[in-house]
Amino acid sequence: MRLVREDTLGKAYAIRRAAREARGNIVCLLDDDNLPAPGFAHWAVHFFDRHPAAGIIGGKILPKWHGEPTPLVQQIAAVALGMCDRGDEAFVYSGIAEGPVGAGLCIRRDLLRRIYDDVPAVLTIGRVGRALDAGDDTALNVCAHKLGFERWYVPEVSIQHIVDSSRMEMGYLLKLFDGIGVGQADIRILYDDRVNNRVIALLAGLKDALRWLNGAVLGPLIMETRVGFQRRRLDQRLVRARARRMLRHALFGWPGAAGAPSNHASGTGNVPAERQQP
User: Fold this and answer.
1) What is the mean pLDDT of residues 2-15?
2) 51 CB contacts (<8 Å, ≥6 apart)?
3) For 208, phi and psi rounded to 5 degrees?
4) Domain assignment of residue 186, given as a range
5) Neighbours of 262 (CB within 10 A)
6) Whose CA, among 21, 54, 139, 191, lies 20 to 30 Å from 109?
7) Could you tell me the end-to-end alpha-carbon distance of the chain, in angstroms, rounded to an integer?
8) Given a cut of 70, is residue 262 above it in pLDDT?
């Protein structure tokens, strides 16, 4: 095992360094709170060998709770904590922003190198320091799709995700939803060319700002359960963060906006038009 240091702060820079240093053909992204299932690496290598059009794969992400999860945490586990269980059959993701979650995501090394070297915008998306900005995994999926690669759900490429009790507290969840909102705004640069137009970006930001304002005014009038109130509070934080980020982009420009890939750029190899069966 080799330990490699990346001096530039940010998850995206760390992943780029991993891509540059990797000696094998596949890079798997695992955090210190991930427990790969037995056979994880075997299934990943085997699947990529059988599916040359696959660029990214990922499977089940099952929670290993350290503490009793609250009803709210159970409700948002997939949205905010990256849990994923889409059944026991492999399939290709179809939506442009769909694909495996970052924890346990496996990607072809050369594709990962190409994304980080050729798409500067990707380096501006995701977590830096203590901030919980999201979107780095979605950025990889969007770029892989636009470069003509498939993204697969492969249930055998499974991990357990350890969730500490501190990550179930409302204060942490509010910061997490702030980061999700920021990530949703940032990721639009990769799949929505219209937001390069600052007028369009301004309108998108104002639309979310009005949605947040509507929730702030009318929300207290809604009769709801405690969990419903907590969920609405989180959703409001997400919308507010997304609005602020989009408005900032509209007024001051989008960092790293250059280099977003075109749909199905050349030189990516043959990609079957129809869905493959595993």
Assistant:
1) 89
2) 150, 152, 276, 278
3) -70, -35
4) 11-252
5) 9
6) 191
7) 32
8) no
